Amino acid sequence: MSKELVVLVARKDPFEQEERFQSSLEELQSLTETADGEVCKIITQKRDRVHPATYLGEGKLEEIKEAAEEAEAELVIFNDELSPGQLRNIADRVGVRVIDRSQLILDIFAGRARTKEGKLQVELAQLQYLLPRLSGQGTALSRLGGGIGTRGPGETKLETDRRHIQRRIDDIKKRLDTVVKQREQYRKRRKENRAFQVAIVGYTNAGKSTFFNRVTDSQSFEEDLLFATLDPLTRQMSLPSGFLSLLSDTVGFIQDLPTTLIAAFRSTLEEVTEADFIVHMVDASHPDHMQQEKTVLRLLDELGAGQLPILTVYNKKDLLQEDFIPHSFPSLTVSVHDPIDRKRVLHKIEEVLKEEWYEYDVFVPASEGKRLQQFKAYSMITSIHFYEEKEGYALHGFIHPEHPLKHQIL
Asked: Which ranges form a coiled coil (predicted)?
């Protein structure tokens, strides 16, 4: 299948740092490639203020039109969220389809969602985005040739009926409420079982799913693409001491995520706030990894998960050209493809926990097999000795200070 040719357009605010502008532009390019587009031209303009009607000035729009004609591009993507009026006016001036960054991200999400919940959330975000933009989309949407920005909910209906969309939005919200309630039940059950939860977070494409799959032997979607994982997965994982925990893989973070999506994926990210421990995966080989790291930490704070114990894992060390200096502690620099490095991560998680947890010594009679199992499952046992004359086990280990089992330790 031939790729769709795309012209990218970005406005640089004079007060915006050059680095931040460039990384946002590179991200737009990666997003376009992830959506099967091929960037044939990038047009930028320094401009103090956005033009309320056309976003950029007349001269620039003329330049975009000429560039699109010359390259035979079928699509122009703006690196900002455009208002319904701006989208309409720009499309009229440049004569090809125009979408913005938000629509592009929504489009990728539509192609990536696997579970019922993921699909519903994407559809909701797309419909909420489209509703105020309907009137100008008529011509573009009736040409159902497909292409970037057109995947997703029933386009043919869009021109015909606003009420239809509003009804669909209400319907999806109801269905999502049910899913969220189910998820809360699962969470409650996990809490009651005192399951220890580790969440992997990080910028999109940092290697989270690769790590998740290798340490839990599961088959979640893994690819060198932005947003390969959309649906949160939780699997059991055993730490080196034998301590069992649950590991959750989460959707990748990104700067300037569309507002409709932040709301839609709140529940996906809420897995993070329920966690007891966070593994923050960073692509150390990315030129802008510091900015990406900050973006994730800021979002964690906004979610209310900023106070959780966190281990930063700088991944892709095999791609590093020079010595790497970590910015966060505790941290490790690894390649998650390397089994020894993955073990190092698991050992480090235990190390960090030992500093936070309560150290205990306890004697469990051999007749109390169930209690022994509980200590093995819910605490980190560092040594275990069987004493024949006492007929029981002396355990030394670490346990979460609030775990109910702690009260059994005298």
From this structure: none
115 is in an annotated binding site: no
CB 293 within 8 A of CB 327: yes
Does 315 appear as a known binding residue? yes
Q: If you average pLDDT over each of 66-70, 183-187, 270-274, 283-287, which comes out highest?
A: 66-70
- Please report, for residues 82, 124, 131, 247, 248, the alpha-carbon distance to residue 197 in angstroms, rounded to integers and kept in the order given: 40, 29, 39, 6, 8
Q: Give the contacts of 343 (CB within 8 A, at least 6 positions apart).
A: 240
Can 4-109 and 195-355 be said to share one CATH topology?
A: yes
Residue 229 known to bind ligand = yes
Tokens standing for residue 314: 């700088």
- Was 206 annotated as part of a binding site? yes
Residue 204 marked as a ligand binder: yes
Is 316 known to sit in a ligand binding site?
yes
Is 227 annotated in some ligand binding site? yes
Flag whether 311 is marked binding. Answer: no
For residue 252, say whether it is annotated as part of any ligand binding site: yes
pLDDT in tens, 201-251: 988 888 888 898 888 876 655 555 555 455 567 888 888 888 888 888 877
Q: What is the residue-wise DSSP string for 14-75?
A: TTS-HHHHHHHHHHHHHHHHHTTEEEEEEEEEE-SS-BTTTBS-HHHHHHHHHHHHHHT-SE
Q: Is 116 annotated as a binding residue?
A: no
Instruction: Name beta bridge partners: 384.
Output: 395
Q: What is the pLDDT of residue 218?
A: 65
Is 249 known as a binding-site position? yes
Task: Return the minimum-mean-pLDDT range out of 29-38, 84-93, 257-266.
Answer: 257-266
- The amino acid occupying position 258 is P
Decide: 6 and 77 in contact? Cβ < 8 Å. yes
Residue 207, marked binder: yes
Residue 139, pLDDT > 50, answer: no
Asked if residue 157 belongs to a known ligand binding site, the reply is no
**Amino acid letter, residue 275:** A
Instruction: State how far the Cα of 153 lies from the Cα of 238, in Å rounded to an integer.
Output: 41
> How many angstroms separate the CA atoms of 252 and 274, rounded?
17
Which CATH number fits the domain 4-109, given the four candidates 3.90.1150.10, 3.40.50.1110, 3.40.50.11060, 2.40.50.100?
3.40.50.11060
Architecture of domain 195-355: 3-Layer(aba) Sandwich (3.40)
The annotation status of 267 as a binding-site residue, yes or no, is no
